[in-house]
Specification:
The structure is a single chain. This protein has 400 residues and is of the alpha/beta class. The protein is 37% helix and 18% strand. The chain has 13 helices and 17 strands. It has helices at 39-42, 51-61, 74-86, 98-115, 136-142, 145-148, 166-172, 196-209, 262-265, 281-294, 297-320, 343-352, 375-392; strands at residues 18-22, 25-28, 33-36, 91-95, 123-127, 158-161, 177-182, 185-186, 192-193, 212-216, 242-245, 256-260, 325-331, 334-339, 355-356, 358-360, 364-367. Strands 4-12-11-10-7-5-6 form a 7-stranded mixed beta sheet, sandwiched between helices. Strands 1-2-3-15 form a 4-stranded mixed beta sheet. Helix 11 runs parallel beside helix 13 (375-392). It is globular. The chain starts with 17 loop residues before the first strand and ends in an 8-residue tail after the last helix.
């Protein structure tokens, strides 16, 4: 049987097999070098084989791999302290993934309403184009019919609303509403950033109605927009009650977290939630190392500087190829270009030129490179994209 035939057919990977990574590059076994502008889908924010992360993981591997949450893990307490000192949060629950972090966030919100005497408040409002994970609950919250097809009826308690329409959200709030869940910058939904004022307005709306505000910063957090978390561009005027994080916070090691205020987490007591692997010694050691690197003001300033340059270059490509590029989108190093040609085909063509990019909803080419990319790396990517867009002129136009 051919290699890979025993794997679920959920993926369609290209023929390239990468065996080594260094900084912003990936290498195949025969030494071919690829510029990585997808970073494991916004995960390898510090690049591949970052020395501090490699050293930390090796040191911890020699000490202790697993305990479960039956016992205390010192690095878990240390990382939770760091999260809370840097954010709105008072409490943290560690998970293995973003989907688990969002699940925990939903449970936390509903439990909060329950212990405050509002058992009827269980409904979660979310926005169209959202991606919150692949579990049954998070797929339902995301509302994408493609991801729900064939998995039975949608779960009760979720209402998916048009993207960025405050009036629709106001009208949707009722006696059963528990929380509003949204990504400050949508990734899978087409690299769409919600305006800072919109985040502030939703915060006020939640306060007026006694609702919990949940931010999913699984993809847009971890320094990707030039702040540790994207909502922090609101300077404290749009802080959530609960937030799910993952991806870049582990730098490539699987980990996630649900952050919450004291009020929001008050109902999450012994027996209400748990995880066998969440917050384990290996993940927490790496998580602490990643957090320290991400909190370097120099790194965040670099993200702002290089992302401004990248967006300028993207705008130049749009001007040079108006028959290919319809719109330049995103915030920081979570950015994209909505195309008039099929984005998946353009992505594959870029890979033939040794540039790795992604695609997202609304026919968008997705770019989430390591945060450590340089302007020279950007120039290299732009040169490839210029060639690719020229070649793509012969492709059929995208049909929605």
């Amino acid at each position: 049987m051919p290699q890979g035939d025993h794997i679920y057919n959920c993926y369609a990977p290209p023929p390239q097999e990468f065996v080594r990574g260094e900084g912003v590059y990936l290498y195949t076994e025969d030494g071919e070098k690829y510029l990585d502008f997808i970073a494991g889908i916004a995960v390898s924010g510090l690049g591949h084989s970052h020395p501090a992360l490699v050293s930390t993981l090796k040191d911890q591997a020699d000490k202790l791999w697993h305990l479960s949450n039956m016992f205390r893990t010192k690095d878990q307490f240390k990382l939770a302290d760091k999260y809370c000192e840097a954010t709105f949060a008072d409490k943290v629950f560690f998970t293995n993934s973003g989907a688990e972090a969002v699940e925990c966030a939903i449970k936390t919100a509903r439990r909060c309403q329950y212990v405050e005497g509002h058992e009827e408040r269980y409904e979660i409002l979310s926005l169209q184009g959202a991606f919150h994970g692949r579990t049954i609950a998070t797929v339902t919250a995301g509302g994408n019919p493609k991801y729900m097809e064939g998995f039975g009826p949608a779960m009760l308690g979720y209402t998916n609303l048009p993207f960025g329409d405050l009036d629709v959200i106001k009208d949707a709030i009722n006696e059963n509403t528990a929380a509003i869940l949204m990504e400050p910058v949508q990734g899978e939904g087409g690299i769409r950033a919600l305006p800072v004022q919109f985040l502030k307005d939703v915060r006020k709306l939640c306060d007026e109605h006694g609702l919990l505000l949940i931010f999913d910063e699984v993809q847009c957090g971890a320094g990707r927009t030039g702040k540790l978390f994207a909502h922090q561009w609101a300077n404290g005027d749009a802080d959530p009650d609960i937030m799910a994080v993952a991806k870049g916070m582990g730098g490539g090691f699987p980990m996630g977290a649900c952050l919450a205020t004291e009020r929001a987490a008050a109902g999450m007591v012994v027996g209400t939630h748990g995880s066998t692997y969440g917050g384990g010694p290996l993940a927490m050691a790496v998580g602490n190392a990643v957090f320290d690197e991400l909190n370097d003001p120099g790194l965040l300033a670099h993200v702002v500087k290089v992302s401004n340059f990248l967006h300028q270059q993207f705008q130049g490509l749009k001007d040079a190829h108006p028959d290919i590029v319809e719109d330049v989108r995103g915030k920081g190093l979570l950015c994209g270009m909505k195309l008039k040609k099929k984005a998946l085909d353009v992505r594959n063509l870029a890979r033939e030129h040794k540039l790795l990019v992604g695609n997202a909803g609304d026919n968008t080419l997705r770019f989430v490179p390591p945060l450590v990319i340089t302007e020279d790396n950007v120039r290299d990517a732009i040169a490839v994209l210029d060639k690719v867009f020229t070649e793509a002129k012969s492709m059929p136009d995208f049909e929605a």
